[in-house]
Amino acid sequence: MSKDLLEMQNGLCYLEFCRQVGVNRILFKRLIQRFPDLNDLIQAGPKQIAEIVLGPPDKIRRIYAFFNNKRLQEDFAQKAQSAFELGIRAVFYTDPRYPGRLKEINGCPTVLFYRGQDIASIFAKEYFVTLVGTRTPTPYGKMVSRKIVADLAADSVVIISGMARGIDAEVHRTALREGATTIAVIGSGPDLVYPPEHNDLMEEIARTGLVISELPPGAPPRRQHFPARNRILSGLADAVAVIEASVDSGTMITAGFAGEQGRDVFAVPGSILSPLSQGCNKLIQEGAEVLTSASDILWRLPKGALQTRIEQAVRTAVNRFEPEDLLTRVINALTGHEMTLADLAVHVNLSLPDIAGILTGLEMNGLVVCSRGRYSLTESALCCNNS
Amino acid sequence: MAIRCGSVRSCALDGIKGIVVDIEASLLPGLPSFDIVGQGDSAIREARNRVYAAIKNSGYQFPSCRITTSLAPAWIRKGGSGFDLPLALAILIASGQVRQPDRLFCAFGELGLTGEVRGVPGTICRVACCLEKSLTPIIVPNANASEARAVCADGLITVGCLRELIDYLQSGRLPASPSIETSNERFPGVFSVEPLSRPSLALIRGQEKAVRGVQIACAGRHNILLLGSPGCGKTSLASVLPDLLPPLNHQEALEVTQIYSVSGLMRENEGLIRKRPFRAPHHSISRSAMIGGGSIPIPGEISLAHQGVLFLDEMTEFKTDVLDLLRQPLEERQVRLARLHHNVTYPSDFILIGAANPCRCGNYFEPDQICRCTPDQIRRHLRNISGPLLDRMDLVVEMTRLEADILPVCVSGRPNAGINPEDVAQQITACWQVQLQRMRRTGQHSPGNGRQRGENLAEHLEIDRQMLDQAAKMANNLKLSVRGYQRLLRVARTIADLDGEKAVQYNHVTEAMQYRLRLS
Ligand SMILES: [Zn+2]
């Protein structure tokens, strides 16, 4: 039996285990660590289980009965097999492939089901931004999503959304069009599509990105699933942006989770007369960042997304040098000084064309300005440099 | 009574082209008079007095009867003193003192009162025209011999006085041609100093960005604007330019020489002009001096700068209407001067170098000086140069006054180790070659990325789709206008050419970006 198939079977088993025996992640973890193959667990007697599980004999019996329910286990194996054939995989939170950001949050799902590309390589990417919004956007909302997503995509940020109607769909479609990786976090089993008209969209997302759910294959979309789903939406990302939302929408729940999870929350300001901007405006009132362009987000991404981006720009501009070293030299030279291009070239010992190229990169990223014939650092660069 | 007529061929000027003119003289009975018909200007009316004196003083009779001379075709306006010689000759033939020569020839030249033949403007254009019409021999004043020889090897007869010419026509005896040293070393420009004593590129220190900018401007024939306080070296930098440009090729040299010849700016014994012109008119210049003018239009500064450099120092001080006149020539590379009956077109294909202070007091770029201009004044300052003209400045370089500690190095004359003017010039020449090859593919015949315009810009510059998109993103990021984006592409192309790269690459675009116009 392949490892993936086994994971799937374990996943299904775990969810049923929670239902019958009670949610106990630690317990289940200890069990599957001891018996990686469920068949071994089935072979094991209550005694061996008792060695692992310290609890009343009643509980041990229930566990033993659960694992020895042949019909149940066969059912898992069969379900796992058919889900596997649909391309659905499962990943446990103990697995190194499990998204690291999600692990940080309170009540992260123990097992995730997903469809699409290799989960490890997708989550090896650097930056993740969740963009969500109303299911009934205004033209403004749609335009904003297209613009922001396109700009984020240009900087190879992975775009996450909820595959709902409206803004979510717009976000996914733009990301796909711009060739960005996109992840849909859905409120049903990964084999079901909701809303149904997004069938093609889901297939397309799976072709280059991921469709993720904490619900097992076959789980129907239920109203009560969606709020819980929203904690994954925000948990997977470095930052959450709300494009348009009314005050009491699910989107606001996502923003609330994002706040709790310590994610940066961005909101697109809108008309005070539009009900669909009231959610965003309220978020801004409560301290969310104002989102006016993609760079507002890029600035706040951890590990200096911008820094990396500049380094990349510099790398292409001056491939002969070590970009990190160069940047420090340029930034250091400019710290506290205004310099002409010629002075700077002498200071960092570069040819004029090279230094000109680097400065353009820095300028484009808002780190350097040129005024009155001299280059100097912007305030944001100074912050960047001090931190 | 026998008809007493004489006719001689000569050549008039229409722009820099020559037009063959028949000069006829007819002696008629009546009270003595001397009329010239055929749209001549005042110089031609005065020719009567010169011709009269010259004929008398050369030992001939001036016929005492009613003399009518005509310059045909009559529809074209003719000017200058070049018809003195043929007029005198026609009168002498008509009066029977000189036999009507049996072969065609063409003559022009001004007559002195003693009968000597003096040089006239536009000789090279007239000679070229006669050659085209196979109208030889061509009689040319001695003073214009060098110029004429530049386009014509045989069939030239140079004469010093009226008698010499008549001797030749009657007996076939060639006049003793004076030995003439042809010189073409002159710098056709406003410099009274010779090129050698002008600063060399290597001696310009501390303005590396500007030097690089000028280098790019030369390499791609881009217009460039130098911004900086007074005394930061804008003028000396600009004056280095002609040294960096490749020498004129034969065709270009012909055009330049023709323009200078028509303007009467050729010196004695000057042959083809080989060096590129550098013109630096003062900001008080009039409209007609800038683009050309007069009832018979003569070339203005923009044509005198043809194939070379037009340097406008204190550009913001020029009258706005004068600067606006530059727009059409900058697009079309020639200037059309409309006159009542016909238009004259002069070529005017030049690199425009503008220099301006960054603000009215000039201290805006200097941190240790006080600039008393208000932000609004600073914003408006460059607007003196109209937007459309600013749009045609591909490169903008900010220059700051040098720190005191670099100055001794500049004065010491120790050359800048990094810059060898000959290398730079060579690089630029190579760059022009590359551009010429590329431009031939799109049906153009002279190099210059700086003159590529319009919708097919990317195609002409051979920049691939992917790089265009990247450049567009950059332009978007730094808020360039559409024209700004086009300027960026042109400059990036030249930087790539200087680099010897076939394809424009990312670093070329990022460098080009630093030469954009930043309006404060
Ligand atoms: Zn000022």
Task: Provide structural commentary.
The complex is a heterodimer of chains A (387) and B (520). A 9-stranded mixed β-sheet of chain A has the order 1-2-6-5-4-3-7-8-9, sandwiched between helices. In chain A, helix 10 (167-177) packs across helix 11 (199-208). Chain A has helices spanning 3-21, 25-34, 38-43, 46-52, 57-68, 70-85, 100-103, 119-123, 139-154, 167-177, 199-208, 225-235, 250-260, 275-285, 294-300, 305-317, 323-334, 341-348, 352-364, 379-386; strands spanning 88-92, 111-116, 128-132, 158-161, 182-185, 210-213, 239-242, 264-267, 289-290, 368-371, 374-377. Chain A is of the alpha/beta class and 387 residues long. Chain B starts with a strand and ends in a 7-residue tail after the last helix. Chain B is 37% helix and 16% strand. By secondary structure, chain B is α/β, with parallel strands linked by helices. Chain B folds into 3 domains: 4-171, Ribosomal Protein S5, domain 2 (2-Layer Sandwich); 183-417, 3-Layer(aba) Sandwich (Rossmann fold); 420-520, Helicase, Ruva Protein, domain 3 (Orthogonal Bundle), CATH 1.10.8. Chain B has helices at residues 42-57, 84-94, 123-132, 145-149, 162-171, 208-220, 234-244, 250-262, 287-291, 301-304, 320-324, 327-332, 375-381, 387-390, 407-412, 421-441, 457-461, 465-477, 482-499, 506-513, and strands at 4-14, 17-28, 33-37, 66-72, 106-107, 110-111, 117-118, 138-141, 156-159, 224-228, 278-279, 292-293, 298-299, 309-312, 334-338, 343-347, 351-356, 395-399. Chain A binds chain B through residues 154, 313, 316-318, 338, 340-342, 345, 352-354, 356-361, 363-364, 370-374, and chain B through 206-209, 212, 227-228, 358, 364-365, 367, 398-400, 473-474, 477-478, 495, 506-507, 509-511, 513-514, 518, 520. Zinc ion binds at residues 359-361, 363-364, 371-373 of chain B. Zinc ion is lined by residues 359-361, 363-364, 371-373 of chain B.
